[in-house]
């Protein structure tokens, strides 16, 4: 081994054992970092007051996401504010930098908007708006009173300057042609404190409307101007009236406005002086400064201040730029002011607003000067009508076609021969109606009643005083330039019509003589020209004028017109007197009816001529207050009446002899028809048919379907729905009208109470309304719930009242088992009426299907 070389071994400088403490150290650092991240950050926020902020509940939110919660509230060091200590989530630390804004969000409601409604559920919260990213971190802040100007505003920001703020404030809306396009987000003073600056935001979709020459004006509240020219009232929308508003225009030829451009805010449209000026030739009309110019009721301009020159008044007007194209050479300006005449009150709205100028726009070449006239020019098709009488007409009265004014009466005149003439003007757009036109007087109210029904025709209110003319088109034939008394004559009229002779027969000619007038709708249509005596009758020859001749035919009925017609009955008193001619010479009237009978006969009166009735007998145990003249109705229409009331020979029944009009009788003189007395009902169950207190009771009929029948019972209650009979040992507070209850809901009523023929029980008839009939089954139970039921003993007591109505008026309750309900029942079935309900019944809760 001597001389052997030594072996040198190098050891590692770090033993693997040291890996364990290193890993432990890394884990500890990671745990500390995780704890730091999850711990969050405490910030101090100074509020003016702490109302609505609750420690542990009030959250801090950013973009709707909770990023922290309030830990505690304390008084600030200066003692004037409230310091809120809040813990911010670690993920939101980056938001806590200088300039970050905090404000409390709570529910608010104003006239223009409602905000913060979500806090009604979640509670108040503090909203956060981070400062600029370049700002350093911070942990103490002063809270804002509300959202900063422009918060979440999307659109273009503009600046308006004005001498004073007026009634415009933050939240006021911006309108373009009445459409809301933006709002005011901030108000402030400019740098020199000389003018007010309004920061407004225009929605992105409306940014293109802002032009370099755009002008803004205030439309806030209600602006009024009281002067000799009248009352001028200018308003915006309801929102602008209450909270302020701003309108603006958008000149089409102006370039887009530059970013950041400041505009002036004018006090109103007139101060903005936006529009195109035109000259007006007004003559002697009392035009005043500020008078509006209207087109279809909308203001499109105003009269400028009037100047006096050597040539008189110089009048100009400012027209809205959007409407300036309507100022054309064919267009006309019409003076409008209040006009009270026989036709009514025209332009009544001008009583408060004062006179105005209306533009009648006609497309054409643009003009700079327009003539102002006091009335609309007469244009259209002119024609002349001949008539026998001009009474009831006036110049300016309208001509109607199907309720629409198509022309007007221009003049009323008499020609050299004394013939009455009417000159009309029909508007150009309706000239096509004249090919087969007929004309007749527009009677204010015309009623024609015959067996075919009742026809009521009314005219517009303008015709009631000033008269008017109606136009109707005949199915064939040319236009006839005559004014007829009514539509029927107008349609039957013929240019070749000739007088007609017509013969009537009568048993005697009392009140009839040669020359006796023949009348149609109160107008003389002819006269009696001949009288002849035949075998037991008188023949009367009538000479009918040509204009009325087409009316006479097989369906014409004639009757004597009484000098004084008096009618007294339950339906009232009617007295009708004729004119002087009928008082002296009598008269004959006629009318047409599709159900005419006895043609060629002269009847004694109108009712006899047009009466075609069928007899009917109604039988009752007593007279409930009906008499001769009491009406029979179906669905509100009179179809007959009571002619007489008498007892039957055995004195056991009352018989009402009635008459039904023939056109209705067939359906009501059949088996299954019913007749029910309708009279006023007053009680705890309700009030019904109060009109019968004034008009009298009547009989309501229901049609039948079966064999012919002429005698029916008169029922004193409406027999509709399900009719049942309940049997009880005693009445126990029940009466007619007592309610029938199901689950304490009224589903019917007691219609009749009576003793059994042998007197052994009380039979109560109840009527279940049709919609609830399915609730009654074979196994249903009925019990009396009238008054108060008490059970009092030594250990206590109970007092039970079903309903207030049953306490006062009595009542019956029923229910149906849940199981084995049984089949549905029909009218006429009987059930026992129990004195009280078993406890088992009260627990039933059936579910029944109609």
UniProtKB/TrEMBL annotation:
Q: Which Pfam families match?
A: MlaD
Q: Where are the transmembrane segments?
A: 12-33
Q: Which UniProt keywords apply?
A: Cell inner membrane, Cell membrane, Membrane, Transmembrane, Transmembrane helix
User: Where does the signal sequence lie?
Assistant: none
- Give the location in the cell: Cell inner membrane
What are the GO cellular component annotations? Answer: plasma membrane
Please state every residue range assigned to the domain named Mce/MlaD.
Answer: 40-131, 155-218, 380-436, 502-556, 620-699, 724-781
Q: Which InterPro entries match?
A: Mce/MlaD, PqiA-PqiB_transport
Name used for this protein in its record? Paraquat-inducible protein B
């Amino acid at each position: 081994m001597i001389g052997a070389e030594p072996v040198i071994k190098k050891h590692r400088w770090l033993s693997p054992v040291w890996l364990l403490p290193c890993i432990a150290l890394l884990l500890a650092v990671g745990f500390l970092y995780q704890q730091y991240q999850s711990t969050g950050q405490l910030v101090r926020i100074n509020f003016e007051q702490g109302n609505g902020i609750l420690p542990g509940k009030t959250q801090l939110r950013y973009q709707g996401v909770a990023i922290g919660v309030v830990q505690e509230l304390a008084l600030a060091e200066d003692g004037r504010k409230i310091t809120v200590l809040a813990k911010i989530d670690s993920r939101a630390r980056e938001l806590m930098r200088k300039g970050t804004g905090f404000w409390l969000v709570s529910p608010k409601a104003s006239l223009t908007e409602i905000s913060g409604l979500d806090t009604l559920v979640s509670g108040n919260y503090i909203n956060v708006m981070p400062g600029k990213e370049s700002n350093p971190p911070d942990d103490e802040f002063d809270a804002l009173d509300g959202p900063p100007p422009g918060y979440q505003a999307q659109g273009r920001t503009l600046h308006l300057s004005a001498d004073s703020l007026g009634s415009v404030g933050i939240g006021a809306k911006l309108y373009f042609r009445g459409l809301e396009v933006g709002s005011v987000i901030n108000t402030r003073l400019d740098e020199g404190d000389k003018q007010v600056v309004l920061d407004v935001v225009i929605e992105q979709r409306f940014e293109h409307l802002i032009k370099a020459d755009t002008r803004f004006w205030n439309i806030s509240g209600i602006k009024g101007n009281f002067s000799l020219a009248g009352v001028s009232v200018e308003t915006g929308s309801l929102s602008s009236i209450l909270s302020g508003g701003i309108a603006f225009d958008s000149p089409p030829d102006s370039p887009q406005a530059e970013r950041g451009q400041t505009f002036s805010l004018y006090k109103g449209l007139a101060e903005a002086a936006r529009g195109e000026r035109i000259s007006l030739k007004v003559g002697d009309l009392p035009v005043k400064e500020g008078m509006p110019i209207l087109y279809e009721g909308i203001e499109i301009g105003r009269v400028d201040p009037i100047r006096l020159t050597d040539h008189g008044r110089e009048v100009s007007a400012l027209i809205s730029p959007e409407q300036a194209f309507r100022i054309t050479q064919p267009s006309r300006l019409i003076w409008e002011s209040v006009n009270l005449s026989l036709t009514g009150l025209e332009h009544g709205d001008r009583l408060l607003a004062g006179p105005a100028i209306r533009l009648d726009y006609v497309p054409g070449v643009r003009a700079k000067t327009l003539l102002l006239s006091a009335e609309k020019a007469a244009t259209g098709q002119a024609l002349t009508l001949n008539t026998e009488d001009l009474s009831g007409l006036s110049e300016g009265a309208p001509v109607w076609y199907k309720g629409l004014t198509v022309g007007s009466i221009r003049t009323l005149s008499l020609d050299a021969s004394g013939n009455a003439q009417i000159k009309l003007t029909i508007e150009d757009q309706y000239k096509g109606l004249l090919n087969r036109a007929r004309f007749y007087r527009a009677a204010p109210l015309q009623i024609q009643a015959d067996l075919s029904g009742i026809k009521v025709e009314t005219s517009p209110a303008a015709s009631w005083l000033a008269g008017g003319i109606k136009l109707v088109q005949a199915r064939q034939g040319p236009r006839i330039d005559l004014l007829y008394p009514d539509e029927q004559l107008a349609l039957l009229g013929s240019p070749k019509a000739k007088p007609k002779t017509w013969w009537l027969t009568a048993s005697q000619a009392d009140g009839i003589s040669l020359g006796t007038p023949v009348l149609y709708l109160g107008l003389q249509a002819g006269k009696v020209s001949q009288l002849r005596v035949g075998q037991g009758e008188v023949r009367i020859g009538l000479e009918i004028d040509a204009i009325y001749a087409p009316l006479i035919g097989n369906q014409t009925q004639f009757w004597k017109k009484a000098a004084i017609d008096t009618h007294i009955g339950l339906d009232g008193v009617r007295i009708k007197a004729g004119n002087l001619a009928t008082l002296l010479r009598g008269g004959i009237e006629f009318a047409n009816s599709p159900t005419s009978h006895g043609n060629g006969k002269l009847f004694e009166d109108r009712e006899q001529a047009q009466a075609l009735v069928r007899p009917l007998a109604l039988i009752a145990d007593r007279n409930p207050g009906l008499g001769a003249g009491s009406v029979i109705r179906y669905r509100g229409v009179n179809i007959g009446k009571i002619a007489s009331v008498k007892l039957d020979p055995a004195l056991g029944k009352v018989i009402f002899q009635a008459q039904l009009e023939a056109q209705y009788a067939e359906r009501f003189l059949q088996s299954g028809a019913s007749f029910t007395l309708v009279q006023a009902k007053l009680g705890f169950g309700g009030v019904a048919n109060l009109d019968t207190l004034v008009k009298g009771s009547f009989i309501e009929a229901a049609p039948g379907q079966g064999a012919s029948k002429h005698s029916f019972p008169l029922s004193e209650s409406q027999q509709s729905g399900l009719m049942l009979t309940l049997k009880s040992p005693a009445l126990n507070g029940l009466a007619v009208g007592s309610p029938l209850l199901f689950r304490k809901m009224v589903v019917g009523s007691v219609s009749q109470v009576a003793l059994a023929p042998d007197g052994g029980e009380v039979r109560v008839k109840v009527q279940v309304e049709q919609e609830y009939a399915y609730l009654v089954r074979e196994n249903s139970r009925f019990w009396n719930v009238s008054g108060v039921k008490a059970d009092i003993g030594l250990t206590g007591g109970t007092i039970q009242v079903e309903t207030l109505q049953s306490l006062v008026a009595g009542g019956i309750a029923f229910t149906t088992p849940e199981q084995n309900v049984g089949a549905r029942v029909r009218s006429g079935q009987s059930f026992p009426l129990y004195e009280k309900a078993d406890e088992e019944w009260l627990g039933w809760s059936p579910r029944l299907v109609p």
